[in-house]
Design goal:
InterPro entries: Glyco_trans_1 (IPR001296), Glyco_trans_4-like_N (IPR028098). The protein is α/β, with parallel strands linked by helices. The protein is built from twelve helices and 15 strands. The protein folds into two domains: 192 residues, 3-Layer(aba) Sandwich (Rossmann fold), CATH 3.40.50.2000; 150 residues, 3-Layer(aba) Sandwich (Rossmann fold), CATH 3.40.50. The strands form three sheets. Strands 3-2-1-4-5-6-7 form a seven-stranded parallel sheet, with helices on both faces. The longest helix has 15 residues. The chain starts with a strand and ends with a strand.
Length: 364
């Protein structure tokens, strides 16, 4: 198939540091190319890909100090996609909202993967207006807040199997927190869990400007108060295998409807179990008692730390290999692409979600 991948311009593809959406766009793109498809990636010029790259801006917008408003750059992106749309069998968007008013006139099948939270009230009128857009959710739970829309499927994220090597005998005796410092990610819970369990905690996380006050007033004082808490800053892809692989467990103490939680499967790939709070996609991602533990409060999380020796790290990695590879992810996407482009479909099965039915690709 001739497939266009349309990425956000905030980060490069793949991102240099933090950036879950752009990282997934990269994994999809590279796996599609590996499987022999003709793929064109619309992204920032500092992106790296084996597909044809259409550079829309010179650098990732987050890294350009001259950029104050990303919207004009994304409108330029959409104009470039529109100009070349007839070249493709399908256009796969990862830019959330901005393309909705335009793509009805493109004359080419489109599908949009929604990577963010959907429980914000401002989204309701948008999806009522553009309810015919084919959409992909990254977990079933992500769908709950939306009115009836045109769900094309649910596709859980996947990673290249050789991206993160498993560590079956970790060298460290610490718990890990990886991601972003923000109130909904609850690093304060991670600190409380580690302190109560008598464990060292390493925090590798990005601090956005919007969350600087939360860091200054809540998290930084906690880090200073506990000598076994170490903040190591934002880390890149090359550092994740060592950081996660040598941890006894990843702490994922979220307090929001997490659409997916990429770090959970990154930990799985490293053979590291996850202790996660029961929010959002967590019950869909974590196989309880195999890939980790699902808990409802700090006390249960502390108890789960004491149960880590009962988990076999090889089985954690086996869960990843069975459920969360890039090959499985792309197989699911191709099922959707072929259906929307009028190609012979692969087998799908009706799956009931709430009060509606959605035809979801069978997950490997």
């Amino acid at each position: 198939m001739k497939i266009a991948q349309i990425a956000p311009l905030i980060e490069s593809v793949p991102p240099k540091l933090y950036g879950g959406t752009e990282r997934i766009v990269s994994y999809i793109t590279e796996e599609l190319v590996q499987q022999g498809h003709e793929v064109t990636l619309f992204a920032s010029a500092d992106s790296v890909t084996s597909a044809e790259l259409v550079p829309v801006c010179e650098t990732a917008l987050r890294l350009d100090p001259q950029v104050k408003d990303p919207l004009p750059h994304h409108l330029v992106l959409l104009d470039e996609v529109h100009r070349r749309a007839a070249e493709f069998d399908i256009l796969h968007f990862h830019v959330d909202l901005v393309h909705g008013p335009m793509v009805r006139n493109f004359g080419v099948p489109t599908v949009t993967t929604l990577h963010g939270r959907l429980d914000l009230p401002d989204l309701q009128p948008y999806y009522r207006t553009f309810g015919d857009l084919p959409l992909v959710s990254i977990s079933n739970d992500q769908r709950r807040p939306l009115p009836p829309v045109n769900w094309a499927g649910t596709v859980h994220h996947g990673l290249p199997p050789d991206l993160l090597k498993p560590t079956f005998a970790p060298k460290g005796d610490y718990l890990a927190f990886l991601g972003r410092i923000s109130p909904e990610k609850r690093p304060d819970r991670a600190i409380a869990i580690a302190a109560a369990a008598g464990m060292k905690l390493k925090i590798a996380a990005k601090i956005d400007k919007a969350d600087q006050l939360y860091w200054d007033e809540v998290i930084a004082p906690m880090v200073r108060a506990y000598p076994d808490i170490e903040y190591v800053g934002e880390i890149g892809e090359a550092q994740k295998a060592e950081f996660l692989g040598n941890a006894r467990a990843l702490l994922f103490p979220i307090d929001w409807p997490e659409p997916f939680g990429l770090v959970m499967i990154e930990a799985m790939a490293c053979a590291t179990p996850t202790i996660a709070f029961r929010c959002g996609s967590v019950p869909e991602v974590i196989d309880e008692g195999e890939a980790g533990f699902i808990v409802d409060n700090v006390e249960e999380a502390v108890a789960a730390v004491g149960q880590l020796d009962h988990l076999e790290r090889r089985r954690v990695r086996q869960t990843f290999d069975r459920r969360f590879t890039a090959e499985r992810m792309v197989t699911d996407y191709l099922t959707i692409f072929r259906q929307l482009a009028g190609r012979p479909p692969t087998h799908v099965t009706p799956v009931r979600f709430g009060d509606e039915e959605a035809n979801l690709p069978i997950m490997a």
